[in-house]
Each structure stands twice: as C-alpha cells, then as structure tokens.
Amino acid sequence: MIRQSWRPTVALAVLLLLPGATAVAQSVLPKSSELVAFMGRWVFTTTNPQGSQQTVRIWDKSGGVAAGLQIGKLPPNDMLNVGRLQPSRSARRVPAFISPSYSTWSRLASGQLSLEALVSGWYEREFGETIPRPATFDDDRAVDCRGDGHLTTTAFLRNRGRTADVLVLYLTRDGLNLVKKSRATVLVPLGTFRVLSIVVGHTATVGSEPLSKWQLAQDEVNQQHAEFARNRGYVSPLVAFTNRNLVVDPGQFATTDNSDAIAAVMEAHHLSRADYDIVMVINIDPARSEGGRAGALVGLRSVYVGNFAHWRTALSARDWSGIARTAYQQLMADHWGWQTDWTPTCGGTRLGYEPFITAPRLFGWEDVDGDGVPEIIDDTPYGRSRY
Ligand SMILES: [Ca+2]
Q1: Separation of CA 377 and ligand 1 centre (Å)
Q2: pLDDT tens per residue across span 329-377
Q3: How many Å lie between the centroid of ligand 1 and the Cα of residue 362?
Q4: How far is the CA of 349 from the centre of ligand 1 (A)?
Q5: How far apart are the CA of 157 and the centre of ligand 1, in A?
Q6: Taking the model in full, what pTM does it have?
Q7: What is the 3-state secondary structure (H, E, C) of the chain?
Q8: CATH number for the domain whose boundaries are 191-335
Q9: How many angstroms does the Cα of residue 350 sit away from the middle of ligand 1?
Q10: I need a surface site. Which of 37, 129, 146, 242 has the fewest CB within 10 A?
Q11: For residue range 44-54, what is the model confidence (pLDDT) as tens digits?
C-alpha cells in the first residue's frame, strides 16, 4: 500500500481512469502488460479536502485494463472499464490533469453530474467565478485539419464602460479534462461601434467611386445583426456599426499601418479621435498581397484589411462583402476576445452560425440561462445572482 498526496502521482492514475484521457498516452487501447508498473491498489490522501482517503485499483481483465475507485469507506465503484473505452479524437492533445474535488468524484461515480455542472465546476475551480449556466459550444464537426476539437465555453463578465472580462475554457467533450484556459479584458461585443473607415483609393481594385459598393457591404453587416436579433425576438440588434467613410490617395498609405498617415487624414478632415471607437483601413493594393489584422492605431482600436485575396482587377459586390466580413465579423471579433479555435474548422467547413465568425452564444448573444435575455445584456448572466 502506498500513501501519497493527491498530486502529482494521482494524475497518472486519473489519466488511466478518465474516458477523455484514454488517447493521451496512445491512440490504441492499453494492454495490461504495458501497465504492469501501475497495477495494484493505490491509496491517496488528499490535501483538498483535507485528509480524504481515496483508493484507486488497477488490474488485469482478460488482457485489458480495468480500474476502480473507492472514496473513503464507501463501497468501491468500478465505474470505468478502461479496456472498453474507445480512443477519443478530441483528446489527442495532452490535457491538463484534472483535480476533481471530493464531491465531483462522488457525484461522477454515482452518475449524478451533468455536463453543465462539470463545466460550471471548471469555472469555479479555474477562475473562482460562479457560472451556473455556462454558454457552451460542442459540435463534433468542429475539428481542425488534424481532427482535433474540444468543447468551448465562454463567459463575458462586464465591467464598467465598454469592456468585459472574457473567461474561456476548452474542455474535452466529456467535460472531464481541461485543455486550455484564458482570461482577458476585451471590448464587450455589444452596442453601436463608431467606425472611421478609410478606403485607400487603388483604382485598379476599388474603382473610382469605391464608397458606393463599400457602403452596401457595410449595410449588409448591420442587416445581418438586425436579422439575427429579429429571429430571436430581440427588440433591437445587439451590435451595430455607424460608419464615416473616407477615400484617400494611395500615396498617403505607401506603408501599411501608417499611424502618421491616418493622423494626417483625420486632421485634414477635422476629425476627432473622441468621436470614434474603431479606425479601419481598407487597403486593397493590387501590388501587395497581405492579410488583415486587429490592433491599435492613432490611439484607437484598429482594423486593417490588406489585399488578402490577391485581387488585381475591379472588385465585385461579392468581393466587397468578403472584405466587410473580414473587417466587421472577423477582425472586429479579435477586439471582442475571439480566438480562431473557439470553433475549430478545417478549410470551408460550415457550422451553421455564418456569417458570424463563431457561435453567437460564445459572444453572449443568446440566452443560455432561460430568462429570455441574451447573456451579454443580462444583469444576471449565465444564471448568476444579481451583483
Ligand atoms: Ca439570460
């Protein structure tokens, strides 16, 4: 009999026990002969809760591996037969070790714990925040080109003004393993954003009157938010953009991300930074292929769109729509805390939330706690108590 504290040795035993972790060691089922060193009865005394005794037993079962867990003096529970588990595509990336509480273990063992309760528990444990009804995205189709995917859950906790703390957790789809976590202060994805949009006048691509088509594409974005709100019965769109558009001479934007050029344009047009939330530069230079990025320019949050599709000739309405989607759905979302792998895809996989860049609930745009109010404007978001 071996007595140890909970970490780190128990982590190995836990890896053997949990379904989401079976593929961590190998993408094949383990044979008992490979795990001889771990066979036997392991007794652990935990430090949290203090002094709780838990027994893990691992044994050979017809050449496979079986495991059981006994909590305190309760009858042992052979709840997982490791030999029958299938490797999980989603768990190929090595997850962090789980450190479940005593109650988690006992409720897991008795089958009482829902996925929602597990996710909620992770928020408590990793961030010290109570999120009783978390917003989760868990779609088996959401995998990257290596076949890796996960459950994503986010919670926007609004601060004063227009920022929010966004808590993000990636979990294995069974909710048992933490893959990644982050917490950041971001622009809250809500309200009207005042955009100063500067279109660089490369006539070969944007033509001599670019604003006629650009404004249609901008309107389309606002219509998408309006339609989303209408479909869910909201009284008004959660997100809208007001745009002040300027066309500038390409000579002023010979280099990209040129703060001086933007400052000069603003001065020439008597524009004040205080009147804008976002400065946007659309620079479809036929001589330069480049992507887009979100950042900061002239003291404002910025969105810069380069010639990401290598256009050489006049843009079509469809091209302008693509530029607007890049600017207002994708790069704006960077300011809202969005990360590409919230909803991983490979190539052109469509998951049903388009034209949005990710599942709307991950921006708080849907009601997940059942009170009819989308979480981003809910004063008791995610089932939290009023505070
Ligand atoms: Ca709600």
Answers
A1: 8
A2: 999 999 999 999 999 999 877 888 999 999 999 999 999 999 999 999 9
A3: 13
A4: 29
A5: 13
A6: 0.73
A7: CCEECCCCHHHHHHHHHCHHHHHHHCCCCCCHHHHHHHCEEEEEEEECCEEEEEEEEEEEECCEEEEEEEECCCCCEEEECHHHCCCCHHHCCCCCCCCCCHHHHHHHHCCCCCHHHHHHHHHHHHHCCCCCCCEEECCCCCCCCCCCCCEEEEEEEECCCCEEEEEEEEECCCCCCEEEEEEEEEECCCEEEEEEEEEECCHHHHCCCHHHHHHHHHHHHHHHHHHHHHHCCCCCCCEEEEEEEEEECHHHHCCCCCHHHHHHHHHHCCCCHHHCCEEEEECCCCCCECCEEEEEECCEEEEEECECCCCCCCCCHHHHHHHHHHHHHHHHHHHCCCCHHHCCCCCCCCCCCCCCCCCHHHHCCCCCCCCCCCHHHCCCHHHCCCC
A8: 3.40.980
A9: 27
A10: 37
A11: 665 555 556 66
